[in-house]
Automatic annotation (TrEMBL):
<feature type="domain" description="NADPH-dependent FMN reductase-like">
    <location>
        <begin position="1"/>
        <end position="141"/>
    </location>
</feature>
<keyword id="KW-0285">Flavoprotein</keyword>
<keyword id="KW-0288">FMN</keyword>
<dbReference type="InterPro" id="IPR005025">
    <property type="entry name" value="FMN_Rdtase-like_dom"/>
</dbReference>
<dbReference type="Pfam" id="PF03358">
    <property type="entry name" value="FMN_red"/>
</dbReference>
<protein>
    <submittedName>
        <fullName>FMN reductase</fullName>
        <ecNumber>1.5.1.38</ecNumber>
    </submittedName>
</protein>
<dbReference type="InterPro" id="IPR051814">
    <property type="entry name" value="NAD(P)H-dep_FMN_reductase"/>
</dbReference>
<dbReference type="GO" id="GO:0052873">
    <property type="term" value="F:FMN reductase (NADPH) activity"/>
</dbReference>
<keyword id="KW-0560">Oxidoreductase</keyword>
<dbReference type="InterPro" id="IPR029039">
    <property type="entry name" value="Flavoprotein-like_sf"/>
</dbReference>
């Protein structure tokens, strides 16, 4: 299975640090999964305005369509996910993520911003009919040390548990058909 780890911002490095840690934990539970981190900061983004898409956006869409599961990492800015992440999701066909496992890790500057994950980002993934794990991990700036190393042991334990549950969702999703069964 191909798993796309999405660093959904063009600013900062904490979300990338979270993804690299989750990637390690996933490998502990299932080394057969093919993991790739997609850093939005390395792409030339364009606004979805009807004009032809550039090569980076075409490649991004293709990676989403070809992936069998996702780990999304997002910062929370102004009580919302970044516009670049929402814009990227707006480019995807509605069935691109259907019945594929997904998990969310996030980082914010206040402890209250964890509500954005539950009240804003998860409903978007529900619209796509992703199999979103029931556990997400929200981190605060205080959970990181120098060079964005995760220094909070509880965060490590929660990331490891997120990885464990995500791997189980991957196994479960293998038996699901991606289209509804025709009863006629």
């Amino acid at each position: 299975m191909k798993i796309l780890l999405v660093d959904g911002t063009v600013f900062g490095t904490k979300t990338g640090a979270l993804l690299r840690q989750v990637e390690q934990y996933i490998k502990e539970f299932d080394s057969s999964l093919e993991l790739e981190i997609l850093y939005f900061s390395k792409l030339k983004h364009q606004i979805l305005d009807g004009s032809p898409l550039n090569d980076d956006m075409k490649m991004m869409i293709q990676k989403f369509e070809e992936a069998d599961g996702y780990i999304f990492a997002t910062p929370i800015y102004q009580a919302s996910i970044p516009g670049v992440l929402k814009n990227a999701l707006d480019m995807l066909p509605p069935k691109a993520l259907r019945y594929k496992p997904a998990a969310i890790v996030a980082n914010g500057g206040t402890f209250q911003h964890h509500l954005v994950v539950e009240n804003q980002f998860r409903p978007i993934l529900d619209y796509f009919r992703c199999l979103v794990t029931p556990n997400y991990v929200y981190t605060h700036t205080s959970h990181f040390g120098e060079n964005d190393q995760i220094i909070d042991q509880d965060i490590h334990e929660r990331l490891r548990e997120l990885a464990r549950v995500f791997v189980q969702y991957c196994k479960m999703s293998e038996s699901l058909t991606k289209e509804p069964i025709d009863k006629h």
